[in-house]
Design goal:
The protein is mostly helical and 118 residues long. It contains five helices and no strands. The protein has helices at residues 7-11, 14-37, 44-59, 66-80, 98-109. Residues 87-100 have a biased composition (Acidic residues).
Length: 118
């Protein structure tokens, strides 16, 4: 008599789960952008969730939701166009490779969205 979809069927469908990650990331990216436009603080948990979603989606070669993709591209463009005297992140003491390097790069790109500005 339960008319809701079976959770076990969603858990067994990786494509469905990735689709849900993409959908939720899109909704959260919209919230983060709205908060940034309104000069409201953005919880770090939201940034971490977007980072995690981007990493997962890229790992499984799923296209990022358009808004999240736009945010990442904008941040990459801003990062590439940094003035020469701009503050630079300290280099890591040990070389970082693979997924960890990707995660650190995404975290660095999302730094403007961390809501520390008033």
């Amino acid at each position: 008599m339960n008319e809701s979809p079976e959770p076990s069927s969603a858990a067994a469908d990786p494509a469905g789960r990735l689709s849900e990650v993409s959908r939720l990331a899109s909704l959260l990216a919209d919230r983060v952008l709205s908060a940034q436009i309104a000069s409201q603080p953005i919880p770090k948990a939201h940034i971490h969730a977007l980072l995690d979603a981007a990493i997962i989606l890229e790992k499984y070669e799923v296209r990022l939701p358009p808004l999240l993709e736009q945010m990442v591209e904008t941040l990459e463009d801003e990062d590439a166009g940094k003035p020469v005297g701009a503050e630079v992140e300290e280099p890591a003491t040990e070389p970082v490779e693979g997924d960890e390097a990707d995660a650190k790069r995404l975290a660095w790109l999302f730094r403007p969205f961390q809501g520390t500005k008033s």
